[in-house]
Amino acid sequence: MNSAPKVTIGMDVGDRYSHVVLLDDSGTVVLRDQIATTERAVRGWFERYKGARVALEVGRHSPWISRLLATLELEVIVGNSRQIALIHKTNKKNDRIDAEKLARLARVDPALLAPVQHRRADTQAALAIVRARDVVVTGRTRLINSVRGQVKAVGGSMPAGRTETFHLRTGELPEPMESGLLPLMELCGELTRRIHHYDRVISELCRDVYPETAPLLAVPGVGPITALAFVLTIEEPGRFPNSRAVGATSGSALASTTLAL
Fold first, then answer.
1. How many Cβ atoms from other residues are within 10 Å of residue 103's Cβ?
2. Domain ranges of the chain
């Protein structure tokens, strides 16, 4: 069990405002406060508590907040909200209760919060490229399906062909449908160009920034997207106790990426 720190702070993070509760070394609440959920406000409030232990739940803002607090030399614990039953099963849930209970759990034993480790900022930025490509691929697929479906609705058909060149097949559109569907075909072409751009960026990242993807790229059927997604999802192999844990973490991420290839 970890020894209790001199100061423990619980932070219940909201989109606009966050509640904070500060406990002293005896576990007494000595301060309750509300701050804006902005970098400036968070930095200004926490920089006076160097060395304190801070607990917050995983969420939309927790990656940047946890990284910011770490630069201020605070001990940051990001709790897994699914496993903090003490907070979510209470009948009197509100911001202040959550912040205080986060602080008390962190003060007694951080393991009770089932801490999670956020990715580094550079890893998250690179992973955003892979995810953005997936979004664009999904959008293109929906456009193509819409065009095909509307053409069938008037008795026409668009024979199977390469997705990459679908936007070039405007001559196959029934004349009455051209005014409505040509803009969709043009959008397909623009999205295809965007996908090619992402592909180039991902290949460059594999070559220049993440050379550890090379062994994966040597495996038949594994391309730059899958290799980079795997490396970014794992990030730090040493944090996994065994290979099964690696598979559990990377499986869903790779499945979604593969579907968008």
1. 25
2. 8-116, 121-259
Judge whether 20 and 100 are in contact, CB under 8 Å.
no
pLDDT of residue 118: 86
Question: What is the phi/psi pair of residue 77, to 5°?
Answer: -125, 120
pLDDT tens digits for 244-258? 545 444 444 454 444
Q: Locate 135 and state its tokens.
A: 């979004």
CATH number, span 8-116: 3.30.420.40
Q: In what order do the strands lie in the sheet with 29-36?
A: 29-36, 17-23, 8-12, 53-57, 75-79, 115-116
Q: Is residue 186 over pLDDT 90?
A: yes
pTM of the model: 0.70
Q: How far apart are CA 36 and CA 32, in angstroms?
A: 14
- Tokens for 210, please give them: 């993440």
